[in-house]
Specification:
about 200 residues, mainly alpha, Serine Threonine Protein Phosphatase 5, Tetratricopeptide repeat, about 50% helix
């Protein structure tokens, strides 16, 4: 599928030629991904915009009910996220696991996608099937990979993320942060946050 291939590579010139020649931009591959889904995983905002201008559905769902916004959020691309939201993407869309784009963005380590989604009304306390919130997601990534997540965690806390909600394993974000050790920036952030809230 040439349009899928060009879109997955963010090649706006080839995408434009294919669209001008009537290639079906709604076509789905074996995973139900449209060209817009694939373009949303690239850093080519131009390719995403072209597909939208030709009528590609910003809320199309692939397998697992993933939307282009879920994929752009997973990739951590703030410009694509902003474009999709401006063109009508649903900031509250849920995948099969009931995760929102904010769950995806909270795992990428970059605070800017998180900020954009929150500015467009994303719920910082939305929970998925595992009763995991975006804050749970960010903390689990920090715990498992030592990724620099302090800015993402700070942003979620600033916007009212609940530190006491339990996931389906009984863990709260506060407990996860506490398990990181006293020297961890995130543990200090939680200590500061709890003092401010009290």
């Amino acid at each position: 599928m040439p349009l899928h291939l060009a879109s997955s590579r963010g090649n706006a010139e080839i995408v434009k030629v294919l669209l001008q020649h009537g290639t079906d931009f709604h076509a789905q591959d074996q995973k139900d991904l449209t060209p817009l889904h694939l373009a949303s995983l690239t850093w080519s905002v131009e390719t995403v915009l072209l597909l939208i201008e030709y009528g590609a559905g910003v809320n199309a769902q692939a397998q697992a009910h993933l939307t282009p916004l879920h994929l752009a959020s997973y990739r951590g691309n703030p410009k694509t996220i902003e474009l999709l939201l401006q063109k009508g993407a649903d900031v509250h869309a849920r995948d099969r696991d009931q995760s929102t784009p904010l769950h995806m963005a909270s795992s990428c380590g970059n605070p800017e996608p998180v900020r954009r989604l929150i500015q467009h009304g994303a719920d910082v306390n939305a929970y998925n099937q595992r009763h995991s919130t975006p804050l749970h997601q960010a903390l689990r990534v920090a715990l498992s990979s030592q990724a620099p997540m302090v800015n993402v965690v700070s942003l979620l806390l600033e916007h009212g993320a609940n530190v006491d909600v339990e996931d389906d394993e009984g863990w709260t974000p506060f407990q996860i942060a506490s398990s990181m050790g006293q020297c961890c920036e995130i543990t200090q952030l939680f200590s500061d946050y709890c003092v401010i809230v009290e």
